[in-house]
Amino acid sequence: MSLPEPDSDALAASHALQHLIAAEIARQDGAIPFARFMELALYAPDLGYYSGGAAKLGEHGDFTTAPEISPLFGATLAHVAAAIMAQTAPRILEFGAGTGKLAFDILTEAASAGIEIEQYAIVELSGELRARQEAALAAFPQVVWLDGFPDSFEGAVFGNEVLDAMPVSLVSKAPAGWCELDVGIADGRFVYIERVAGADIAAQIAAQVPEAEQLPVGYVTEIHGVACGFMRSLARMLTAGRGGAAVLFDYGFPAHEYYLGLRASGTLMCHYRHHAHADPFYLPGLQDITAHVDFTAMALAAQDAGLDVLAYMNQASFLLGAGIGELLMRSDPEQAKTFLPQSIALQKLVSPAEMGELFKVLAVGHGVTLPDALSAADRSYRL
Fold first, then answer.
1. Are 123 and 146 a contacting pair, CB within 8 Å?
2. Whose C-alpha in 30, 228, 318, 382 is 20 to 30 A from the C-alpha of 160?
């Protein structure tokens, strides 16, 4: 791989994290589950990718998200939130708020449009990102930060590219059945070690992967146990109150599109300085590690825990149904210097060649309905 070289401080931090992971491998008789490796690489205190101090988003980070592309994204979600809050309470909860750009745009649009937001709560695991959020949102006194799920919540919940960053288990089809891929060390490097899948992983494979036994030997894929747990926690939180809805944006597929022969190596990807590659062992702590989302598994986990599946569709259908085009037209098309950049940014969000088809939206809730235009665009039958 030809990737940008990290500076000496970043390299030292990665080496420290590698030593921490190696020590845990030694304590666990030479191997740990890949999900545990991914958890440490992303979230180990002070050293993991999301808990360390390196910039993650934007031009100088590793990737760019929808809120960074255009304020129209957040402005559109402000009106979706208004429809949900009108049925519940004037509160918003955001998981993984990044730089705070989405919250800033939602709150700015709400102030302009007369949408009441009594509280905007953020659950953020990254100390570096929380500091950026606090600076960006200093003008909005209704913003508070939480360390985890509240016991109950009424209102609108948003998560943009949250599910894809949750640790996954890696499994591989062997001649004798499914194996779990653990992480060990050989010749001073992290390597995969196969072991027969335990009962818990085998049960998850049976529940998550359609026709799992028909897949070819050597097939590798991901099991989304942590993300399914997140959906169950979301359900407990929303069903404990009068109601609310969660709208989750991410890249992924329904199960029947996820587990295909063309994805025989899985969907695990890493992002470093706007370069994408597939080696999770490269500079742990300095790169993002993600997997595509199995939206069928997410929807079933939420439904089994008591939520309704309100809608599933691609990002283009959601944003257009939620009125992003009308918000763009508040700018005068004759004023090319202001209108054209916004129009180009909107195209990135909705074009099938950009984010419009790759990114999907899953909405789940309790005691609420979505606006008619979004319900009409629902494709949850594809799950």
1. yes
2. 382
The 10s digit of each residue's pLDDT in 177-214 is 999 999 999 999 999 999 999 999 999 999 999 999 99
What is the distance between the alpha carbons of residues 230 and 307, in angstroms, rounded to a whole number?
A: 13
Residue 141 near residue 112, CB atoms below 8 Å: no
Ordered strands of the 275-277 beta sheet: 275-277, 269-272, 288-290
CA distance 369 to 248: 16
The angle formed by the CA atoms of residues 259, 181 and 273, to the nearest 5 degrees, is 80
Block residue for tokens 């100390």: 127
Query: Residue 267 in contact with residue 222, Cβ under 8 Å?
Result: yes
For residue 117, how far is the Cα from the chain centroid?
A: 24
The span from the CA of 145 to the CA of 111, in Å, is 20
Question: Within 10 A of 380 (CB to CB), how many other CB atoms are there?
Answer: 17
- HEC profile for 55-104? CCECCCCCECCHHHHCHHHHHHHHHHHHHHHCCCCCEEEEECCCCCHHHH
Q: Are 336 and 276 in contact (CB under 8 A)?
A: no
Q: Are strands 169-174 and 91-95 parallel, antiparallel or unpaired?
A: unpaired
Residue 310 parent element (H or E): strand 308-314
**Contact assessment for residue 232 and residue 297, using Cβ atoms and an 8 Å cutoff:** no
